[in-house]
Write a structure and sequence with these properties.
Length: 467
């Protein structure tokens, strides 16, 4: 049984989708006013782990991630650079898609952009005006929070603090300013605007997600995610708008990840501890190691990013890829050892049990490394046979469908003819016959196989196609 911690109830709850076997998932996407930073990627990778796990457990997942391409921050950024909003946001939207691919994040089924969905937002705003949940003031439209009975349930806000009738303009604000918030903002000098039935202007940030989620997933859907900073006001306001409009429950499970901090501090440009993915890749950081580091702390725990932790993540992964390499390239004798089947079954059970328990990743990772440790002992004792190696490879591949962290997973074993060539070269090197060794190396290179001499011995890489 899968359990998730639901921010709404503040409890672990058994997961039961609305339609058996199917999950509708909405994750708040990037506000495209800058390159995404590693904190953002903690959120996106947590969501990717959740999604990959649900797929692994047999669910058909429909995933929507919005692109916030009009809001206070994007408008400010475009104005500062004196370029059109669309031109400004396109640069960061393109960068976002490049980045997620580098981190092996599965693509969503839909990436709706806010600027393509203004009519959907207007439909909800009009409905809220008709139902008396919203009112117009000076050309803008506000949501009256005193009219929505459940306001504050998600963020556990103290209702005594609410000051109905007071209004807040900006998209982001603290709980202390839980006032009537803007659904639609009046046309202003220097801001893009749309001519609509509720007047000229542009949407508030929160209405964007209410409109785009219901358009692609329906008025009630299964899971909505984001980082903890999204709980208030963003998700609180999404619930208010969506439920007031539809009269139905908006989302069944709210999952939020805690923040990533760097060297024990909040990331900020002024402190010089602010890293985009691009900053790290420019320092030759391995994307797999970064992904592993970001997902290996439970999503509801604070994650402290350090370069030492990144090094550790990298060497842990090397153990996995070395193990896989060994399994694929060692000549195992024919046969089978029942201990390996038991080992694989046990690891698989633990792997799933960990993730079933609110994505308890430490249990899952322990299962993976224990399997490797024990199998390595059996290999060194000559107790692993060809069928066992195949089973271990299959189980690593299936674990990696969820984790997506093993470098070189797709590499296939070399045909024995080429393996013999490599052995011949090894022998030539041992005999100090470097001319012959080089000749074989060049021969293999012509066939698209690059040899690398490492401290653990010779390694090969396929450069093109299959050997
Ligand atoms: P934004 O582009 O600011 O709208 O944020 C995109 C996603 O990243 C949201 O789900 C945020 O909650 C999340 N996020 C922002 N900063 C952090 C952080 N330091 N750690 C984890 N998640 C974050
Ligand atoms: Zn959102």
């Amino acid at each position: 049984m899968i359990r998730f911690f639901n921010t709404l109830s503040g409890k672990l709850e058994p997961f039961k989708p609305i339609v058996e076997g199917k999950v509708k998932l909405y994750t708040c996407g990037p506000t495209v006013y800058d390159f995404a930073h590693i904190g953002n990627f903690r959120a996106y990778i947590f969501e990717d782990l959740l999604k990959r796990f649900l797929i692994f457990r047999g669910y058909k997942v429909t995933h929507v991630m919005n692109i916030t391409d009009v809001d206070d921050k994007t408008i400010k950024g475009a104005n500062a650079e004196k370029v059109k909003l669309q031109e400004f946001t396109k640069k960061y939207t393109d960068a976002f898609f490049e980045d997620i691919q580098k981190l092996y994040i599965l693509k969503a089924d839909y990436y709706p952009r806010a600027t393509d969905h203004i009519p959907d937002m207007i439909k909800i705003i009009k409905g809220l005006l008709e139902k008396g949940y919203a009112y117009k003031k000076d050309g803008s439209v506000y949501f009256n929070i005193s009219k929505f009975q459940n306001y504050g349930r998600l963020s556990k806000i103290d209702l005594k603090e609410l000051r109905p009738g007071k209004r807040i303009e900006s998209d982001e604000y603290e709980k202390e300013s839980a006032n009537d918030f803007a659904l639609w903002k009046d046309k202003k000098e220097g801001e893009p605007f749309w001519e609509t039935e509720v007047g000229p202007g542009r949407p508030g940030w929160h209405i964007e997600c209410s409109a785009m989620s219901s358009k692609y997933l329906g008025q009630t859907f299964d899971i909505h995610c984001g980082g903890v900073d999204n709980i208030f006001p963003h998700h609180e306001n999404e619930i208010a708008q969506s439920e007031a409009f539809s009269g139905r429950r908006f989302v069944n499970y709210w999952l939020h990840c805690r923040h990533l901090i760097v060297d024990g501090e909040k990331m900020s440009k002024s402190k010089g501890n602010f890293y985009t993915l691009r900053d790290l890749l420019a320092k030759d950081v391995d994307p797999y190691a970064l992904r592993f580091l970001l997902l290996s702390t439970h999503y509801r725990k604070m994650l402290n990013f350090t370069f030492e932790a990144l090094e550790q993540a990298s060497s842990s992964l090397k153990r996995v890829s070395d193990f896989l390499y060994e399994l694929k390239n060692r000549q195992f004798e024919e046969g089978e050892n029942k201990d390996i089947s038991r080992l694989v079954e046990g690891a698989n059970k633990e792997f799933i049990a960990g993730l079933d328990d609110d994505l308890n990743i430490s249990v899952t990772i322990r299962a993976l490394f224990e399997m490797i440790r024990k199998a390595n002992i059996l290999i060194s004792r000559g107790k692993v046979y060809r069928k066992d190696a195949e089973k271990l490879i299959a189980s690593l591949h299936s674990f990696d469908d969820v984790l997506a962290v093993i470098p070189g997973k797709e590499e296939v074993a070399l045909p024995s003819k080429l393996k013999k060539k490599i052995e011949e070269r090894e022998k030539a090197r041992a005999d100090k016959n470097y001319d012959l060794a080089d000749q074989i190396r060049r021969e293999l290179l012509k066939q698209g196989i690059l040899l690398e001499d490492t401290k653990d011995g010779v390694r090969w890489k396929i450069l093109k196609g299959k050997p």
